[in-house]
Design brief:
This protein has 65 residues and is of the alpha+beta class. The protein has one domain. The protein has helices spanning 43-47, 53-61; strands at residues 2-6, 9-12, 25-28, 32-35. The protein has a two-stranded antiparallel ribbon with strand order 1-2. Strands 3-4 form a two-stranded antiparallel sheet. A hairpin with a 3-residue loop joins strand 3 (25-28) and strand 4 (32-35). The mean pLDDT is 92. The structure holds iron/sulfur cluster (SF4). Iron/sulfur cluster binds at residues 12, 22, 24-25, 35, 37, 41, 45. Iron/sulfur cluster is lined by residues 12, 22, 24-25, 35, 37, 41, 45.
């Protein structure tokens, strides 16, 4: 589910795609989605909060409030 960037750093597959979509995300954006590896999600996902600018940008991208 990851792409190795450096010996110590990986990125979730799909997060660099256009449009970005993490391979671990299931469901339909704007309706119902869930992280299929939530308990094992990587540290950047644990550090995000729902008010993070990247989250706001993603909502705008998909036309969500
Ligand atoms: S929380 Fe992280 S691992 Fe889970 S779907 Fe979102 S980006 Fe992917």
């Amino acid at each position: 589910m990851t792409v190795r960037l450096t010996p110590n750093l990986v990125r979730m597959c799909g997060t660099d795609a256009q449009p970005p979509r993490c391979v671990a995300l299931a469901g339909e954006i704007g309706r119902a989605v869930q992280c299929t590896i939530y308990a094992e999600r990587p540290s950047p996902c644990r550090e995000f909060d729902t008010e993070h600018e990247a989250c706001q940008r993603a909502r705008r991208y998909f036309g969500l409030p």
